[in-house]
Amino acid sequence: MTLVYPVQSLAAHPPRLSPAYKSTVKRSPTKPLIPMRHTLSELTGPVYGHETVREGDHDLTIHGKGEPIGERIIVHGHVLDEDGRGVPNALVELWQANSCGRYVHVVDQHPAPLDPNFTGAGRAQTDAQGYYRFVTIKPGAYPWGNHHNAWRPAHIHFSVFGHAFVSRLVTQMYFPGDPLFLFDPIFNSVTDEKARNRMISSFDLENTKPDWALCYRFNIVLRGRNATPMENS
Amino acid sequence: MPQTKPDGITPSQTVGPYFAYGLTPNGKYDWNDAFNNNLVTPDTSGERIRVEGTVFDGDGAPVVDCMLEIWQADAQGRFSDPQDKRALPNSSFKGFGRIGTDAKGAYAFDTIKPGVVPDPDGKPQAPHILLAVYARGMLLHLYSRIYFDGEAANATDPVLALVPADRRSTLIATRQPGNGNPVYRFDIHLQGDEETVFFDV
């Protein structure tokens, strides 16, 4: 099976210049991007050895000496291509703020406490069906300097590799029903409502672990579709 | 598995200012690197090179919170991916690198000069490295290509031919004077008069 990566699918992405998110103004190109046919360079992508993802990398609650503070959650789902097929062996990297809305990063000076038992970095590889699973802590909302009283809705950053260098995706997963959605220029940079909603995880009661952790499902759809679609496939 | 066909791809969002401890810890954070900026492995054949440069924004200011990823073929023009049927399954050269820019907006990759990769018509492309650029203020990463100074094949490269002649130089890394392994300079301008050519791929 040969996958193709039509540029039409890119319409789901936010425009690079999105002035409400101020940092885009000086960091987006002003000259037209050059269209080109994909060559082998664009259509291939890195593969990883098993050493890239270690046992326990997917569980962000066990990386410290003790348990981190906050609401323990399971975040799981499938990495899919545009036809809905699971993407096997996909590397999924995740980073996030702690339950207080503070990042470990040295530049983050938000006056909320760091948690010595939580760095907020994790890594997983999808199985043969494209399934991945993380255990983590629900991140807090946090203020940022974009405009007066700007707050980011709680989110988890995801970095995902698919079958090709052009299916590479960095995105953010949001939590359902967040009252900050209306006011966030990064979330709203995605102008199509249906596309925007694909960044919101769904509460997954069925996979919640009683007496232990709530569960959220986040399916990630990467570029890539069958070059010659079969009927009834 | 979800039962319904997706109604589209997941939209991109910015990598933000705080990716380093997850994606490029590089000894500064308590997390291991999945990838780094040294692609050379002991069994790698080919010419050792360094590609280095600085990333600039539209004001000409260095971008100090930028992440760069590169993807390239080996010296024989093969990709370390089973989708490339010519690939050597046991080679330890993976062809993928990642680095965050430093406090001056600078970056460097140690790698090998890639070989010739065919275009979809089977015509040779000049040696090139694919580049993806991520940063705070970038809602979607940008793709570019790093070509090399002094390559005769640049003149007939089918992708460079698509680029207006007066902008082609933004895609060609310049060989720096000096002894030892060749060093190529490739600055990245996100915007402005010297704006790097980015591809709609």
From TrEMBL, chain A:
<dbReference type="Pfam" id="PF00775">
    <property type="entry name" value="Dioxygenase_C"/>
</dbReference>
<protein>
    <submittedName>
        <fullName>Protocatechuate 3,4-dioxygenase subunit beta</fullName>
        <ecNumber>1.13.11.3</ecNumber>
    </submittedName>
</protein>
<comment type="similarity">
    <text>Belongs to the intradiol ring-cleavage dioxygenase family.</text>
</comment>
<dbReference type="Pfam" id="PF12391">
    <property type="entry name" value="PCDO_beta_N"/>
</dbReference>
<dbReference type="InterPro" id="IPR024756">
    <property type="entry name" value="PCDO_beta_N"/>
</dbReference>
<keyword id="KW-0223">Dioxygenase</keyword>
<dbReference type="InterPro" id="IPR050770">
    <property type="entry name" value="Intradiol_RC_Dioxygenase"/>
</dbReference>
<dbReference type="GO" id="GO:0008199">
    <property type="term" value="F:ferric iron binding"/>
</dbReference>
<feature type="domain" description="Intradiol ring-cleavage dioxygenases">
    <location>
        <begin position="75"/>
        <end position="103"/>
    </location>
</feature>
<dbReference type="InterPro" id="IPR012785">
    <property type="entry name" value="Protocat_dOase_b"/>
</dbReference>
<dbReference type="GO" id="GO:0019619">
    <property type="term" value="P:3,4-dihydroxybenzoate catabolic process"/>
</dbReference>
<dbReference type="InterPro" id="IPR000627">
    <property type="entry name" value="Intradiol_dOase_C"/>
</dbReference>
<dbReference type="InterPro" id="IPR015889">
    <property type="entry name" value="Intradiol_dOase_core"/>
</dbReference>
<keyword id="KW-0560">Oxidoreductase</keyword>
<dbReference type="GO" id="GO:0018578">
    <property type="term" value="F:protocatechuate 3,4-dioxygenase activity"/>
</dbReference>
Automatic annotation (TrEMBL), chain B:
<dbReference type="GO" id="GO:0018578">
    <property type="term" value="F:protocatechuate 3,4-dioxygenase activity"/>
</dbReference>
<dbReference type="InterPro" id="IPR000627">
    <property type="entry name" value="Intradiol_dOase_C"/>
</dbReference>
<keyword id="KW-0223">Dioxygenase</keyword>
<dbReference type="InterPro" id="IPR050770">
    <property type="entry name" value="Intradiol_RC_Dioxygenase"/>
</dbReference>
<feature type="domain" description="Intradiol ring-cleavage dioxygenases">
    <location>
        <begin position="51"/>
        <end position="79"/>
    </location>
</feature>
<protein>
    <submittedName>
        <fullName>Protocatechuate 3,4-dioxygenase subunit alpha</fullName>
        <ecNumber>1.13.11.3</ecNumber>
    </submittedName>
</protein>
<keyword id="KW-0560">Oxidoreductase</keyword>
<dbReference type="GO" id="GO:0008199">
    <property type="term" value="F:ferric iron binding"/>
</dbReference>
<dbReference type="InterPro" id="IPR012786">
    <property type="entry name" value="Protocat_dOase_a"/>
</dbReference>
<comment type="similarity">
    <text>Belongs to the intradiol ring-cleavage dioxygenase family.</text>
</comment>
<dbReference type="InterPro" id="IPR015889">
    <property type="entry name" value="Intradiol_dOase_core"/>
</dbReference>
<dbReference type="Pfam" id="PF00775">
    <property type="entry name" value="Dioxygenase_C"/>
</dbReference>
